[in-house]
Design brief:
- By secondary structure, the protein is of the alpha/beta class.
- The protein has a domain at 3-97 and 167-210 and 231-245: P-loop containing nucleotide triphosphate hydrolases (Rossmann fold), CATH 3.40.50.300.
- Helices cover 39% and strands 25% of the residues.
- It is built from 11 helices and 10 strands.
- It has helices at 41-48, 74-80, 92-95, 102-114, 118-131, 137-140, 150-162, 180-197, 208-211, 232-237, 242-251, and strands at 3-12, 15-25, 30-34, 56-64, 67-68, 85-88, 168-172, 200-205, 217-222, 225-231.
- The chain has a 6-stranded mixed sheet. A 4-stranded antiparallel sheet has the order 2-1-4-5, covered by helices on one side.
- The longest helix is centred in the C-terminal third of the chain and has 18 residues, at 180-197.
- It is globular.
Length: 262
């Protein structure tokens, strides 16, 4: 399966926030969407899954495994989310339901997409909690989000997103709300899970240093438009766009390992 975005335009109440964006995510690729706040990267991701805010419209083409997503019904898109395409949001405090145990939230995908009963879903949630290295999985699935640390909540969100082994994961700034040490742990976890499962990845960030740790290719956005794209090693070594050059200057002021990872 592969993702193809062509001439995507997103408008909110008549204001164009994504302007003709095109890129591909081949099978198994790890592609970063990077840009400053307001560049259109998150709106692009939300358009892929039909999660745009009220008042927003999307035109152009978004094809997943040959299917045009922009023409799918809400019901068909709901069936796609969590099954074929997973998403992890920036802040698990708002992404997770505060009045449901984390086990119920991880297991929900099994109940929706695979028809699992409550007991089976909980047992599988324990296994998924163990997979993302949560401590004492059998006990932690009985807790509520507010009883966990920020890093643990994000691991829960990752477990929920990957429970049904989607072929594509969209990660929308999943480490921004975490401190540097926990951020590194979450990046390592995400990279390992994506590689082990052979998933494709769209990783959204404003930080080129973070992107270098997980992506192999990058699409640089500014004011809703693509200003540069290609292998991340090329963008790091010889960026052409002033926007990319500015992101690189900002990145070199942070702790990172030049050249990223393969």
């Amino acid at each position: 399966m592969s993702l193809q975005v062509r001439d995507l335009v997103v408008e909110i109440d008549g204001t164009r926030v994504v302007d003709g964006v095109s890129f591909d995510v081949p099978d198994g690729a790890r592609v970063g969407l990077i840009g400053e706040s307001g560049s259109g990267k998150s709106m692009t991701a939300l358009a892929i899954l039909g999660l745009l805010p009220e008042g927003a419209t999307a035109t152009g083409s978004i094809r997943w495994d040959g299917r045009e997503l922009l023409s799918l019904s809400d019901r068909d898109l709901a069936a796609l989310r969590g099954d074929e395409i997973g998403i992890v949001f920036q802040d698990p405090r708002t992404a997770l339901n505060p009045i449901r145990t984390v086990g119920r939230q991880i297991g929900e995908a099994f109940r929706i997409h695979e028809g699992a009963g409550r007991r089976e879903a909980l047992a599988r949630a324990v296994a998924e909690a163990e997979r993302v290295a949560l401590p004492d999985p059998a006990q932690i699935v009985r807790r509520y989000p507010h009883q966990l640390s920020g890093g643990q909540r994000q691991r829960v969100a990752i477990a929920a997103a990957l429970a049904c082994r989607p072929r594509l994961l969209i990660a929308d700034e999943p480490t921004t709300a975490l401190d540097v040490t926990i951020q590194a742990e979450i990046l390592d976890l995400l990279r390992a899970l994506v590689v082990d499962d052979g998933m494709s990845l769209v990783f959204i960030t404003h930080d080129l240093a973070v992107l270098s740790q997980i992506a192999t290719d990058a699409v640089v956005l500014d004011a809703g438009r693509v200003v540069e794209q290609g292998p991340l090693s090329t963008l790091l070594g010889a960026p052409h766009s002033p926007v990319t050059q500015g992101l690189l200057r900002d990145a070199t002021a942070t702790v990172w390992r030049p050249g990223g990872r393969s």
